[in-house]
Amino acid sequence: EGQQKVVDGFQSRWGFPQAIGAIDGSHIPIIKPCHCPSDYYNRKGFYSIIVQGLVDHTGKFLDAYIGWPGKCHDARVFQNSSLYKKGIKGSLLPCLTRKLGSVDVPLVILGDAAYPLLSWLMKPYIETPSSPDDIKLYNYRQSRARMVVENSFGRLKGRWRILLKRLDCHLDNVPSIVSACITLHNMCEKFNDHWSPDWVCQSPTQPVSQPSNTQQLPSSSAAIIRDAIKLYFQHN
Description:
The protein is α/β, with parallel strands linked by helices. It has one domain. Helices cover 36% and strands 17% of the residues. The protein contains six helices and seven strands; from the N terminus they run αβββααββββααα. The chain has a five-stranded mixed sheet with strand order 3-2-1-6-7. A two-stranded antiparallel ribbon has the order 4-5. A hairpin with a 2-residue loop joins β4 and β5. α4 packs across α6. It is globular and about 55 Å long. The model has no long low-confidence stretch (mean pLDDT 92).
């Protein structure tokens, strides 16, 4: 029942069928580690650890994987997470399909270009100025629905502003601090605690750009599922 509520939420808010969550990574600034500091130095020029977050349609975190060095690509973090391992085994999501055209579309997670295309994880098509309109429409619709995870990280850091600046504590303690903030964030969201847009300020932890993940070829089933959703958007 709870999972169907999430699916219905993505459908009613953004018109995206069969979405069960949106995933992204965010960086938490830390002091320079004593061990392998270069591994933690990210593309934006500061030391950080990565938080991989999966959120529902309301912005509550369903899963958080915390602690990988800031230099790592989001795809590498993802492929080492329990979420990925469960997804590959087929034990992550319930078998709730919806027929779109002639395709039985399963529940899917929405990711950006940094993630691999899987039968249970959708990413945008590669887009150029000359791409056809159906690809541009799909990418727009997915980006619009996936924005909920970026907003969630913004609200998380806006409420718990310790995450906006460098955490001057031992590296081993950082995951516990971040996890506690996420738990409190979910409680605030659940009980509609007061939120002010003014709490989101210019942060030193602006999104760290990630190159597109082109190393892993999509499975044929994943491509078919994404094409079916793309076709659905032509009529809905």
